[in-house]
Design brief:
alpha+beta, Arc Repressor Mutant, subunit A, OB fold (Dihydrolipoamide Acetyltransferase, E2P), 6 domains, five-stranded antiparallel β-sheet, 16 helices, 34 strands
């Protein structure tokens, strides 16, 4: 039979496809047999034995044998999801909505691999939840007849959780729910309300929500609070007698207007043509001993977290704003770095020692900048102004030294959220960095480098702050952006200098912010490790964090190590390499957790501001392009939003990864990074922290 011959032929040539004429020729069909081929092929296709595409036929692919795999489930807002596998090599597996079962975003699942009968594409069906990622969730309390339920704020966490009626809970209040029974089959999840956070429109509730969603430790242990209460509020005179007395120095703190914890103070004297700089850092290690309850709580937090108008501190307030804070006109214990530099900023001499100091003044960046720009008009006394001017001279020399070795100075102004008296966001403000910021940054960098170099030379294991070289693929994207902006970027054996020149070339151009942001995305994330790999961004061979022990745990660790090194103790008294390796990973993870929480709340505040601007039109620049659309950063509002691909209805656009642009198939219209556009605020989704724009017009020739 001809049917059997066709099946045998396609089986032999699997997976190759043949057209009708090729099939007839391969089977040597003649006359009437040849005329039957079209009818037979149609019958075989209808019976599901063969497939036809563009006039070519092949056997339906054999279904792959079902097998089970494990991975982490990610749920999309539309109800379907993907499973990411542990090897990071296997492509993510698509899970249709009907096969998600009761999995929640982040759950570890076992998935059964299948192939689509229509096109043989693989997909998965979740067959078992191996580990639940969420034991608790934050949601909105609602009444439904005689029942109560909590709808998760994060819609990726699924449907409502049934809870008991709360006597003092108002509908719409945000609550934290502890899940007791996860959903299974047709049965909804059940849980109990563990805490009522408050009204959904309360700014403080927003903060509490982010703290819990990011799983930030937010309550000090009773043991740590007891230790903090027992600490003296004044410096112990016996301890003072053991230290170098720096109370006669004109030491000052320089911080932002809203700062409350002051962990660094500086002073400078001209020593002939040289500069003698003192960087004094709060001696937190005097009060937080290794293994104490305060130490354990600080380690668990890893860092202070700074939200608009609120701080979640690493240490209790009795320390962070009290005995450890270098408050003006109060004696404080410090670890001092005394550094001697020549006029070019080259270090000549370094000393470290425990000391006692008394801050002469609490200065702000604004005060110092004004004193440097207008020394005749400042309220500061002439002696202090002269010291600030000498500090500025040294800071400029240190900057020049860093730049000469290839250090990168990214200039991305921070956008601050402006709050009203109730803490509600009312606007955004671009905070400019002035020379006072740069001055303090240079001195802190110099002290951090000096400590790392000193401990390295003494062969003491420590936690370095390292920064690896950037990913070459990311640099290619930066090159593409630079080319789009009419700037050249030729990367050689020392890419720091090429990147540095790019920043200089872009400094006065409209695209400067875009270039700086893309360069930042190109760089790898800095982290903590006992293995010294240098710091690419600073072009430093030795670098650690030493200058902020009130708010960063790695700095506190370095203080403990420095004290041991200065007292000549055996290295066995310090941390082992393995302990530091574990600590480094821990601190790096907690730093990223804090950064994500800070970013999350800032994005929420931006969205809350933009929620009141639906329909407003504004101009901006395309900041990035992806397969699903392009992001626009508005000129005056300092927010970024998405123009979704689906909203571009004038053509069919596809993403070109080589030019990082969207290109229309028919009209060849192109949307690329750096292009100026005018948009309208279309939609704001608070839970997703997402702002959608509608494209109005394009200034295609503007870059």
């Amino acid at each position: 039979m001809i049917e059997a011959k066709i099946i045998a032929l396609l089986e032999a040539l699997r997976p190759r496809a043949l057209d009708r004429r090729e099939i007839a020729t391969q089977l040597n069909l003649r006359g009437g047999e040849r005329k039957q081929v079209t009818r037979i092929l149609l019958q075989l296709e209808k019976s599901g034995q063969i497939q036809q595409k563009r006039g070519r036929y092949r056997l339906v692919p054999r279904p792959e044998p079902e097998r089970d795999l494990e991975g982490i489930f990610s749920l999309a807002a539309q109800g379907y999801g993907f499973v990411r596998f542990d090897d990071n090599q296997t492509e993510d597996l698509f899970i249709p909505a009907r096969h998600v079962d009761t999995a929640m975003d982040g759950d570890r699942v076992r998935v059964r691999l299948r192939a689509s009968a229509r096109d043989s594409r693989p997909y998965g069906r979740i067959v078992e939840i191996l580990h639940r990622a969420h034991q608790r969730l934050i949601g909105s309390y609602r009444l439904r007849g005689q029942r109560a339920e909590v709808w998760p704020l994060d819609k990726k966490l699924g449907a409502a959780v049934q809870v008991g009626l709360g006597a003092k809970i108002n509908p719409g209040d945000l609550v934290e729910v502890e899940i007791e029974d996860f959903p299974h089959g047709e049965f909804a999840a059940r849980g109990r309300i563990s805490e009522v956070l408050g009204a959904a429109n309360d700014p403080q509730v927003d903060i509490e929500t982010v703290i819990r969603q990011q799983d930030l430790p937010h309550k000090f242990s009773s043991a740590a609070l007891r230790e903090a209460e027992l600490l003296a509020q004044e410096v112990d005179p016996q301890e003072v007698s053991k230290r170098v007395d720096l109370r006669e120095l004109s030491l000052v703190t320089i911080d932002g207007e809203t700062a409350k914890d002051f962990d660094d103070a500086v002073a400078l004297r001209k020593d002939a043509d040289n500069y003698r700089l003192w960087v004094c850092i709060a001696d937190v290690s005097q009060y937080v001993t290794i293994g104490s309850s305060l130490d354990q709580d600080a380690r668990e937090r890893g860092t202070s977290v700074y939200f608009p108008g609120f701080c979640l501190p690493m240490l209790p307030e009795a320390l962070s704003n009290g005995i450890c804070s270098l408050n003006p006109q109060q004696d404080r214990l410090v670890m001092a770095a005394e550094l001697l530099f020549d006029p070019t900023g080259r270090p000549l001499e370094t000393k470290f020692y425990p000391a006692v100091m008394c801050s002469r003044a609490r200065l702000t960046y604004t005060q110092v900048a004004e004193a440097l720009d207008h020394p005749q008009q400042t309220e500061l006394d002439s002696e202090l102004v002269a010291q600030l001017q000498a500090m500025n001279e040294l800071a400029q020399s240190l900057t020049a030294m860093r730049q000469a070795r290839g250090s990168l100075d990214l200039d991305i102004p921070e956008v601050e959220v402006l709050l009203d008296e109730q803490g509600k966001p009312v606007g955004l403000h671009k905070a400019e960095r002035n020379q006072a910021h740069r001055l303090i940054e240079e001195f802190m960098l110099a002290a951090n480098e000096a400590v790392a170099r000193f401990l390295t030379n003494k062969h003491w294991p420590l936690l370095y702050r390292i920064h690896a070289a950037p990913d070459p693929l990311k640099l290619q994207e930066l090159q593409q952006l630079a080319a789009e902006c009419g700037l050249g970027l030729v990367l050689g054996k020392q890419p720091q200098f090429a990147l540095q020149q790019l920043l200089v070339d872009a400094a006065e151009r409209p695209e400067a912010r875009l270039i700086n942001q893309q360069l930042l995305r190109s760089l790898q994330q800095a982290c903590y490790t006992p293995e010294n790999q240098g710091h690419f961004g600073l072009a430093a061979d030795h670098y650690c964090h030493f200058t902020s022990p009130i708010r960063r745990y790695p700095d506190l660790v370095v203080h403990h190590i420095l004290k041991l090194a200065l007292t000549g103790q055996a290295k066995s008294a310090g941390y082992s390499f393995a302990e530091l390796e574990s600590l480094g990973q821990e601190c790096s993870t907690k730093e990223r957790r804090a950064m994500q929480a800070e970013r999350d709340l800032v994005e929420l505040r931006r969205c809350q501001i933009m929620a009141g601007k639906i329909g407003v039109e504004a101009e901006g620049v395309i900041s990035s392009v992806a397969e699903f659309g392009f992001f626009v950063e508005l000129d005056e509002m300092f927010v970024e939003g998405l123009v979704p691909l689906r909203s571009l209805t004038d053509d069919f656009y596809h993403f070109d990864p080589t030019t990082l642009s969207l290109l229309g198939q028919r009209r060849r219209r192109r949307f690329c990074i750096g292009m100026r556009v005018r948009v309208r605020v279309k939609q704001v989704e608070l839970w997703r922290r997402r702002i959608d724009f509608e494209l109005l017009e394009v200034a295609e020739n503007v870059r």
